[in-house]
Amino acid sequence: MPSPAATTPDSIDVDIPIPDNTMPTEQEIQYDIFNFIKELMDSDGLQIAYCYEHATKKPPITQESLAELDMNRIITNPKLRHDVNFDRELHFRPNLDGSKGRQKIKLADDFWRALEGELFVYSFILERRWRPEEAQNEAYWEQVIRANQKRLPNVFTAIRDILKTLVPDSDQQKITDRLDVDLLMQQIERGMCDYVDLANWLAKVLTAHCAPMRDDLVRKMQKSITAGANEQDLNKIVKGLRQLLNILEHMKLDVANHQIRHMRPLLVEDTVNFQQRYNAHRMEHKKIDVRAAQTWFLCEMDNCLEEPTHLEALTTALLRDLVYADGNSLSPGTFYLDTERLRALRVDLHSRIYHYICGDVLVMLAGQSVSQSALSAAMRELYSRVSAIVGPSARFGDRIEHIASEIVRILLSLENRSQPIDIQLQGHAEQRLVEDLRPGTIAFNEHAEALTARLLPKLIRGVSTRQNMSAIALQDELVPAIPVPSTNPVGLGFGAVLEPAGMNSEVVDLDADIVRRFAHVVILHWHVWKDLVYLQPLNDEIEESCSVESSTPPAMSRTSSPVMPPVSHPVYRSGHKFVPEAIVTDDQPMTLPAPASSTPAQQSRNNERRNVESRRSSMDDHSQWRQHDHSEEHQSTG
User: 557-586 as b/e, with b when 16 or more CB fall inside 10 Å?
Assistant: First the structure.
């Protein structure tokens, strides 16, 4: 079966000037190739020529890009070995997230367009160099062939190397012989490469070693390459090669995910031992700021109003960081493997506080004629609608206008007003939301204090009752069983990323969900780090730094409400976490800060807040977010 290189498009008959000199420079050769593609290909010639000149030389999928899926890399991957504790169905998927993912897709598209241009140049050379009038230019065409070998050899190399990692040792030599890159390139340059036979052989090998669910992809690949060869359609051949590499990526992902599922119990069971050894090595090389972690922990021990256990101090300090601390200074560096989980907890905690604030605005703007029962129902409706408005990212600050509109709509409905919008009321609602929907405001701190006071006893109890559990027991109790997704992600060939299987969207008790997730992080963290950092002897420098009150948010009793943080100047140093040094505090009582002055506007705000609290206190149950508060002793802490 002849290859597409054996025949050429009609457009190739267009005369292209060939340099007279027999030894053109490399730059001149590249310029000629660019013009061949631009002038002789179809309408996309200019774009393909640009991609040919600028696209990467390596294919999007290579043995190196898939190396992280090898078993030896999996068992030495600290993030994977930590994350597997928190997800029963953790698996790899192609990494196409965000702007970087879109950039990878574009780079891949450019690569495959460039490869189409490269195949076209082989066809053009094959047709042109054997003309009688070109006999004196043989050296020139040899130079063009060598200069054109940019990407196709790399594609064949990637196919061979990846395939060899997926077949038994007994088949290794067969793969090497059939995918001899030098031989394949010679066949293509001479128009003798049988693409149909190659596609049939690849399909046979792949179906023998891949999962049955990949057979359809294999058939599509085989069909594309065969059609491209029979129709002299270079685009279809390129499409088939792209599908081939995607199939190989899928096969590597299948093997890696199978190994993770098989090894999960062993990986979880060995979590503490592995991480202690790994982190001890990192500490020896000064890659972890031990002093900052010890300072953070000791300051919490000193600042608690009652003498806590070590684990209680860790629980209290972490909760305070999640609720009050700036997002850029979230916990010491020892939590580096839990950053994503802690940020998710922080988003959920702040989201609940922001929902309370939205409820405050609704209560403040509601007329006195609105009954308490109607207002309570309206608040539940508002919380539900606000959740839909802000979405999973819970970016309240970007949705203030929409939240205010929803508040006004509910208020107008409560007051039986038929008008669709009240501009003045909308302005009041937006102003209050702009002022209050951010950390550090009076409204935020009031609700943060109440939420922290309610959660802390539950967290301490949830942690203390499970502190002696093994890592595997913690997963069995705290990680919900989730069915494996029925669909498989589509691979486009850009490396892999670990993907949690997802969380159950039906959360009956929001406090219990927080306790479950929080307790798992804290207990596992304590098992790993207690002997490495927290229970190590503290030097005088660290003890002295904690003689001054901590600049992190409020110290608290385990049985009383938290108090507000002192006025301070936190210090951030490049490459380090929050360090409580050079802290300046005032001598004011550690309670909610009073207004700096009693201006009429501030007095009005204070009166409004008192009215809101008064109306809230008269409601039986004003928020779906505070369910089960009255039956704490009967609810699960997991």
Answer: ebeeebbbbbebebeeeeeebbbbeebeee
